[in-house]
Amino acid sequence: MSPTPLGLPVARPPVHGHGNLHAETAFPAAAKEQMRNEQMRANIHHATHTIRAKRANVTAELPDWEALRDAGSAIKQDVGARLPELLEEFEANLTARGAHVHWARDAAEANEIVADLVRATGVDEVIKVKSMATQEIGLDEYLAGEGIAAIETDLAELIVQLGHDKPSHILVPAIHRNRDEIREIFLNEMPGVDASLSTEPAELADAARTHLREKFLSTSVAISGANFGVADTGTLAVVESEGNGRMCLTLPDTLITVMGIEKLVPTFDDLEVFLQLLPRSSTGERMNPYTSMWTGVTPDDGPQDVHVILLDNGRTAVLDDPAGRSALHCIRCSACLNVCPVYEHAGGHAYGSTYPGPIGAILSPQLTGITSAENASLPFASSLCGACYDVCPVKINIPDILVHLRARAVEAENHTIPSQMDLLMKGASVLMSRGLFMSVAERLLPLGHLVGRRGIGWLPGIAGGWAQERIVPTPPRQSFRNWWASQEADND
Amino acid sequence: MKIALFATCIVDAMYPRVALATVRILERLGHEVIFPPGQGCCSQMHVNSGYLDDALPVVRNHVRAFADARFDVAVAPSGSCVASLGHQQPMVARAGGDEALAREAAELAGRTYELSQLLVDVLGVTDAATDLGSWFPHTVTYHPSCHGTRLLRLGDRQSDLLRTVGDIDYRELPDAAECCGFGGTFSLKNPDVSGAMAEEKIGNIVASGASICTGGDAACLLHLGGAMRKRGSGPTTLHLAEILAATREHPLDPTSYDHSIPEGARR
Hints:
The structure holds 2 protein chains of 2 kinds.
Chain A: H1 27-34, H2 38-60, H3 65-81, H4 83-96, E1 100-104, H5 107-121, E2 125-128, H6 132-136, H7 139-145, E3 149-152, H8 155-162, H9 179-189, H10 201-218, E4 221-224, E5 228-230, E6 235-240, H11 244-250, E7 254-260, E8 264-265, H12 271-282, E9 290-295, E10 305-311, H13 315-319, H14 335-339, H15 341-346, H16 357-368, H17 373-376, H18 387-391, H19 398-412, H20 420-431, H21 435-442, H22 464-469, H23 480-491
Parallel strand pairs in A: 1-10, 2-3, 2-4, 4-7, 5-8, 7-10
Antiparallel strand pairs in A: 5-6, 6-9
Chain B: E1 2-5, H1 9-14, H2 16-28, E2 32-34, H3 44-48, H4 52-67, E3 73-76, H5 79-87, H6 89-95, H7 99-110, E4 112-114, H8 115-122, H9 128-132, E5 139-142, H10 146-150, H11 157-163, E6 169-171, H12 186-189, H13 191-208, E7 212-215, H14 218-231, E8 236-239, H15 240-245
Parallel strand pairs in B: 1-2, 1-3, 3-4, 5-6, 5-7, 7-8
């Protein structure tokens, strides 16, 4: 054994994340199951196409949209490169302004910290601002196990929670539901709701408002995520549409924020870029209705007991991979979901993670590491059409990262007994590395005529996936290569 | 100009008429076309399936096959394969530790054009009827394939050429920029989603009122055409090179497509 030189840091393997990130069913099977739900597909088709058009309009009207995207990308790259020093600067500024900063390596640590903080206040009910980080770590479920009820106050999250359902979209968690289904959920699950409730959006919103207003006024602890954390001031920011987040952030005595460590921006001025990029990309609005910012504790105004939990949960592991790390630039706008045809047909639940759609297909398996055939299936859940990259406000090259992760997924497989795909790829590699081999193999093309003019409607093994959806046409009698060679021979 | 044809594996094996049409268009413009015989595939299928090691010999072969030939520019009747040359081949070579191959691949990719790029940007074709004699009196809609659109940024090159074909009845395709659902081995691994995407595209093709859907990528057309036949939908698919190559003197009958180059056909 060679001695470890003193003073040299020992390279430690990256620590991966846990929580609601692991797909339990491989994507093709999960998608097939979800696609049976025609109502869900119709709801998602309608919603994504509506938001898509709005986004296209409000981004096209900005002459400096591309420059903003470049700036967003550059700022996030800078954050990744200087993450340790920026986090310490952020912590120092938060502490100086009276907030308490906690560090959580993974979901389990973050959940325990939150539960301890809530228990210390003596309450058993908390209100929540819509937050992806707390979905990721499964906070609501964990708190429920600890005897603490967490009430979601974002309207769509409330619909999901009351429906004992899972979110299926980053921005619009109940995108898979329509108003008839929402009315049913409210009637069955919302205490004290009027039985004459109609399916009018205003009436549904009013029912939720009455239900939530009582909670806002009676609950002393709130839990939030954060869209941005500003390192040079210690400011946290939440952007939202409803104002329910603002209620949670201002009314209670105690405010606990769980923030992924990649949510930092270096300076307050950097918000200028992201507060233009985010609303236009996510809801297709020029400006979101509510932007709440708070910096530690403001004496006698708002929560006086302020906590921030900085969550890693695999983010450092993602940062470790130069080819995949830009997935951490994501600002959770969901523009990539809204333009993705795979998401549109399969729906968010097919991805089996808090993060669905194209960004989820690259983020989830990176946060957890490729641990199973199920989550290794996510990078393959794309036709690589590239629509996601075109709309990403921080220019994450999702298709390239998908391809990179596919190679990692194939590496992680056990190839002792070659799979059909292994054999197909090896065979094709040998064949396609020599024009002569192709020429010889293509002499078999006329065999395809044995199937006649109707083409081939069934194929064995993995090729069956092709024939399931398509007829394979009768091949030509001669390949171009061989036809050309015969022409050249005639000319000689 | 001396132009090297990169037929691409799928056109070579399944759509030889598309390669022949490409040759005829270029020869009509007075250029000499050669076919480097060692060529195989761009390697995109391997790369996108995660098999970089198996992609490396395919990349090496492509670069060697064209290095052995003398030509001014190369052309391929595919946006996806041309995009892969510049976008993926150098990456595959670097992943395999072959920096020299990466440079050669990038250089070759730099002078390989997708057909409409070559016609419009290099050869200055602005009107297919006038410059190429193209004549195709049928209702046609056009699916702009994803890699041509988003990786090569072909813009209106292909559709402008099609619109200027003599007597063509050009129909707009609703939601044209949506992927058709092919996606290489995606179509095998995720057949249900791929099929649903094809169905949506087919619905738009039917809604356009066209009897033919054309495009610049044979693989997308193979997928879409096969999905239409499986579902018994009316329209068929046809590569844009064949439409551009069709003339009044040598019209193309699209009603019964035989993949074989007709007996006795000459360049």
